[in-house]
Amino acid sequence: MNTDPFDAVQRAQGVAVRRRTQRLRARNRAAAPPHEPPPSVGSPRQRQGYAAEAQAGDYLTGQGLQLLARNLRCKAGEIDLIARDGSVLVFVEVRARHNARFGGAAASVNREKQKKLIRAAQYFLSQLTERHFSGHPPACRFDVVCLEADGLTWIKNAFAA
User: Fold this and answer.
1) Which of 51, 42, 73 is nearest to 145 (CA)?
2) Can you list the pairs that 8-15 forms with residues at least 24 positions away whose Cβ atoms lie under 8 Å?
3) Residue 92 · residue 56 · CB < 8 Å
4) pLDDT beneath 50, residues of the chain
5) In the CATH scheme, what architecture does the domain 31-159 have?
6) Model confidence over 99-117: pLDDT tens digits?
């Protein structure tokens, strides 16, 4: 059987894309439990990010929110923490800054970052609705937790979709 090289490459790419998609879906389905300690792998900056997310998660849990997932990634972006506040699904962005030289942590969640978070939230909304809200679409909000030298600030309903 004489096979065109172009067709063979297309088939191989299709297989690779399907496998990667399956791995990503499996990883998102089996998202890390909310209280699992941050991984000890990654760059120093990544470890600082994981530590900030863990601190924010502990704070939110202390405020009565129930953590559902952390670090959900898709092509549109990443959502640091996902929590439930009563009947509201909360998407949380965690920002840590050592100083406020460039506007601080809150200022770093600009329009472009907000758009990315909204697109990522839309991607995961149906899965989260099925898993945690019995298929009934919940009210949603976007919060930002800022960690700076002077402490932690929780901005509820920081922006709207």
Assistant:
1) 51
2) none
3) yes
4) 32, 35
5) 3-Layer(aba) Sandwich (3.40)
6) 666 667 787 888 999 999 9
